[in-house]
Each structure stands twice: as C-alpha cells, then as structure tokens.
C-alpha cells in the first residue's frame, strides 16, 4: 500500500484489530457474496464486510452449503470482494481450512495474499454443512486445535497478518462444556477471536462472554436458524465484539427476484422494482459499481473513451 506524505496508511487488517480493541465498538458485518452486494453495502456505510460461505456456494455454484465449495472458489471470491475497497476489512468464511494442517496453512496464506482481513476456521469434518442444519460431524478437539495452530504458523511465516477466528459447532452434539473447551484451546493455540455457532439463549451467550473474558466473540445472526435473532444493540449489550449477518443478501434477494419473475411470466412486465414511480436506469445501477470513478480514471490517464458523459 502506497505511503502518503510519508505516512503508511492503515491496512484493512489493522483497522479490524483496532475495531476489536475499541471498548465501545461492535463490528457489524453485512453478509455479501458478490461484488454487487458488496458495493451496495459499502455505499450504505458498511465499515466491515462478511463474505458468507453459504452465499458464495449458492451464488457461484448454484448449490446448497454442503461442503462443495473449494478453497479456490472461496479464495477467488474473497479476493474480488476485498479488492473493491482494499482499506475496508473483509471477514471471510474459510470453512474447515479444506484439508489437513498443510492445506489449512495454504488456505490462510492464500487469504492473506487475497487481502482478507479476518477468517474463521471450524471443527467440522471436511464434508461439512451449514452450521444451522442438523447432523453435523466434528473432528476431535486435538485436530481442531491443530488447524488453528497451523493457521497461526502460516500467518507468521507469510510476513502478513490476518485475524484468526476459531469457530466450533460442538454445542449441538457435544454440549456447552465441550464447546467452551474447544474455544479455550483454540485461543491458547493462537486464535484472536471465538465463534460459538448455534448459541441457544441470551443466558448462554452471556455465559460464553464471561468464560472467554478478554477474547473477542462473534455472533452469527441467522434468522430462522437455531439462535436468537439478536439485534446489533442486543449483541453489543451481551458483550459480543463482532456480529455477522450472512443471510442478509440471501434472504432479501430471493423474494424480490421471485416476485419479479412471476410478474414477468404472469403479466408480461416487471412492475415492482421501482423508486419514486420510476424504474432504475442502467446508468444509475452502473454508478453503484463505480461507473463515475472509472470514467474519471480514464480521463486522468489521458484516455479518450469517456471524454463525453456516458
């Protein structure tokens, strides 16, 4: 990153660490899975983004979140999203790390080089499933800890930085005590933050924060899942430092596109996607994705393609 006036700009990962260190801050991350959603979230004021693994699998592969996305699928999507605003932190799902310790190390290094500010690694088997589905299978605690240890070693050897978030799905099948044991062991191995998936009650969440005193904890808001639908304010009051909303885009896009398709197929015309009684023009939609900035860049470089307004 280029220096300005002799001062090195703060990197995205350092911004994320600063946010986590701020006692009055909760990091709120809208879930995005493509560049268009990321652009919209940024225009609306997001200061941190979350790349959802479920959304990436659905959007890029057209498949449910059943462990079918590869490291390359996830890394490439994360790199694209991170590149849109390189100084805005992006936290990205890294699933199980996609293999043994060597592969976990490769995944972490790849995410660092892709510009990702934070990632989470979980304790499911490689053929994983969404954390809010039943029947999840877990690796032993020692194997989970080895994944976290591999991540911290890879981070150190890379010469870069990334916030490592340890996620456990043990609550459903092994119980609260086993889940806490795994998170504490992961933090001891070098994880920066903890993520207990599938929290059941506010009391359980408060107990988590108490037991992991000093370790930033992440809340995963999945409406219709197994956890309470905490608002940002509620999550902050409980003591969470990060709140991710992975279904934000998935949930609202489905009914909107479904409705528009029904209007087209049943009535021959889309009527609903309007603002102030008018449809959105291509120009307005392209502006969401940096049309004006791209045209100005071309002009500054001496290009002639956009001397007249588009």
TrEMBL record:
It holds the Pfam family PEP_mutase. One of its GO terms (molecular function) is methylisocitrate lyase activity. This is Carboxyvinyl-carboxyphosphonate phosphorylmutase. Gene3D superfamilies: Phosphoenolpyruvate-binding domains. It catalyses: (2S,3R)-3-hydroxybutane-1,2,3-tricarboxylate = pyruvate + succinate.
